[in-house]
Specification:
By secondary structure, the chain is an alpha+beta fold. Among the domains are: 194 residues, FAD/NAD(P)-binding domain (3-Layer(bba) Sandwich), CATH 3.50.50; 116 residues, D-Amino Acid Oxidase, Chain A, domain 2. Helices cover 36% and strands 24% of the residues. An 8-stranded mixed β-sheet has the order 6-5-14-15-16-13-17-20. It has a 6-stranded mixed β-sheet with strand order 8-2-1-12-19-18. It has a 3-stranded antiparallel β-sheet with strand order 3-7-4. A hairpin with a 5-residue loop joins strand 5 and strand 6. Helix 1 packs parallel to helix 3, helix 1 packs parallel to helix 8 and helix 10 crosses helix 12.
Length: 459
Amino acid sequence: MLRVAVVGGGPSGSCAAEVLANAGIQTWLFERKLDNAKPCGGAIPLCMVEEFDLPESIIDRKVRNMKMISPSNREVDIHLPNSNEYIGMCRREVLDSFLRDRAASLGTQLINGLVQRIDTGKNRQGPYTIHYADYAGGGPTGELKSMEVDLIVGADGANSRVAKAMDAGDYNVAIAFQERIRLPKEEMAYYEDLAEMYVGTDVSPDFYAWVFPKYDHVAVGTGTMQKNQSLIKGLQQGIRERASKRLLKGEVIKVEAHPIPEHPRPRRVVGRMALVGDAAGYVTKSSGEGIYFAAKSGRMCAEEIVNACAGGTRIPSEADLKIYLKKWDKKYGPTYKVLEILQNVFYSNDAAREAFVEMCDDLDVQRLTFDSYLYKRVVTMNPWQQLKLTFRTLASVLRGQALAPSGYRPVASAVRTEEEVALMMAPPAATDTDTQTIHGLGQDAGATSAADRQPALSR
C-alpha cells in the first residue's frame, strides 16, 4: 500500500491529507505547532467556503464592505450588494485546526512532530526516510524517530525542509507583520462587516496595510518585499499612526510576523516529492492572497497522486506528479501574472496609489474585482468597459500626480468627534504607562514595545 507523508498541517497540507486518506491511502500529517496562529489577514473568498465545505462556525466575520484609503486619505467605499456574498474573515488557528481534524477523521495519522532531516535515496528518487522529533509525549525536545515513505508532499511553508531536501531552489520572501488589537465596543462595532486597506509609502513601499475584523479584535498589519524587510517595524508604525483615530484605546494582544513567498520556486516536483502552498510559492502579488491557493494546490496535488496510484498499489512517478503542475499553471498562471503587473504599476509610488484608489470607485471595476476574487474565475470585459477603463486609468494617473501628499496624517475617526478623539488621545497618567494601549500616533510605551518584540521569521 502506498505510503505518503504530508509535511505541514496548514490548509495546503490538511487538504492534501484529506484527499489521500479519503481514497484509502496510508497518510501521515506532520505538524509541530497544533495551536499555530500564522500571522495572516485571514480573508477567504466565498468560493472556498462552498468548495471546501467550511462551516460558518469557523468564520469570525462576513465582510460585505471594503474601504480603500489612499495616501492622501481619500476613502472609497466598496459594497457587495448581494446579501449572499461576502469575504470570510477567519483566525488561522481556528481554520487550520478544523481542516486538520477533518483529515484525521478520514484516517490521516496526525503526528505532532518536527521534521528535521529527510534521506531522499539515490538521485532523490526515494524511498524516503523522514527523521523527526515526536512531541506527543510532551517535553521540550521530543522523541527522535524515523519513518520510511514512498512519497512526500511538502506543505511546510516558506522555510520548507522538504524544499531543501529536494533542492527546489530558493525564492525571495516578503515579510508580513501584524498586531491583533482589541478595541472599545464603539470602534469594534464600526468594523462589524467592514475591512480597510491602506496604501502609501508610509505603510508599505510595494504592498498595502490592512485592518481586518476578527471575532473580538482587529488584525492590523502590513507587508513588504524582501529588499525592504529592514523597514518593517517602521511600516507597522506607519499603519498604526494612519489608523490611530480608529484604533483608539486599542489593546495589543498579540504580535506576529512571518515570511511570505514572492514567486514560485524554480522546482516544485523532484522525484516523488511535490511542493504545495507557501512551500511552492503560491501567494499572489497585489492582493497577497494565499489561503485559497494553498488549499487548492494541496487538493490538486493529492488528486493526481490518487489518480496515478491504482488504488494505492502503484507508486506515482515524477512524471505523474508533474501533471499537477501543468494543470495548476494552466489554471492559475494568468491570474498570478496579471496581479504581478497590477502590483508593479499601482504600488510603485503614491501618485499611482492615488490613481488605484480612485479607480476602485468605479462600479464596473468593483464588480470585476469582486467576481474575480470571490469565485476565482477570469472575468472578461465587453469592449465598452475596456475602453472606459483605459480612459479612466489614464485620467486617474494624471490626477494622482497632483493628489499625492507630501506627508501623511491619520484618517478621521468614524464613530467619534474630533473633540472626543483629542480627549482620548491625551497622554495617560503616569500610573497608566504599564498598560499596553494605543493612545494615538503609536507613541505610547505599549505600542512601541510591541513592535520591538518582532518574533523570529520561522515556521
